[in-house]
Design brief:
Layout lengths: L2 H25 L6 H12 L6 H11 L5 H13 L3 E4 L4 E4 L11 E5 L6 E4 L2 H13 L8 E5 L3 H8 L1
Parallel strand pairs: 3-5
Antiparallel strand pairs: 1-2, 3-4
Helix pairs in contact: 1-2, 2-4, 3-4
């Protein structure tokens, strides 16, 4: 595999994702400021997620005066705009991998208990069924992020091999 080609493709994909995010924010009357863009870029580069303090340390490399509120405000904005999610089980933040979330639609995350890998699952039927079951039981979701413990394919393969 040509890693240079892959790295170039990844950079192009990241730039395109950031441009789409910026355009979406603008269409909603919001602004993807440089710090928000930087945080989103870091999340895109780390699909397994990052903790807020890991983000802060990375940001401080470019902006030494950055503080925890800087990062948390950026994360709150990205979550509000549907560009990121918080995985509470591990206190991680991940970039949204789905560009078509409907407003107020829950996001399903498969969290591997062995490697802590996180996969965003897009299954509208499952989300609707879960929502209907919750309503029938008299409950409602506390958070738009639903986390399910599930062993990932890589860990399953390692266990079988």
């Amino acid at each position: 595999m040509n890693t240079t080609h892959t790295t170039v493709e990844t950079a192009v994909d990241e730039a395109a994702a950031l441009d789409r995010a910026e355009a979406g924010c603008r269409a909603r009357g919001a602004s993807l400021t440089p710090i928000r863009r930087m945080v989103l870029a870091m999340l895109l580069r780390h699909p397994g997620g990052l903790k807020a303090y890991d983000l802060l340390e990375r940001i401080k490399a470019d902006k030494p005066g950055a503080s925890p509120p800087t990062v948390y405000r950026a994360l709150d904005f990205l979550i509000e705009q549907g560009l990121a999610h918080k995985i509470g089980r591990m206190n991680l933040f991940v970039a949204c991998s789905q560009q078509c979330h409907q407003a107020q639609m829950a996001a399903l995350f498969l969290v591997c208990p062995r490697c802590n890998g996180v996969t965003e699952l897009q299954d509208e039927a499952a989300i609707r069924a879960l929502s209907a079951s919750l309503v029938a039981a008299g409950h409602r979701l506390e958070s738009q992020e639903v986390e399910i413990g599930a062993i990932c394919p890589r860990c399953r393969a390692l266990a079988q091999g």
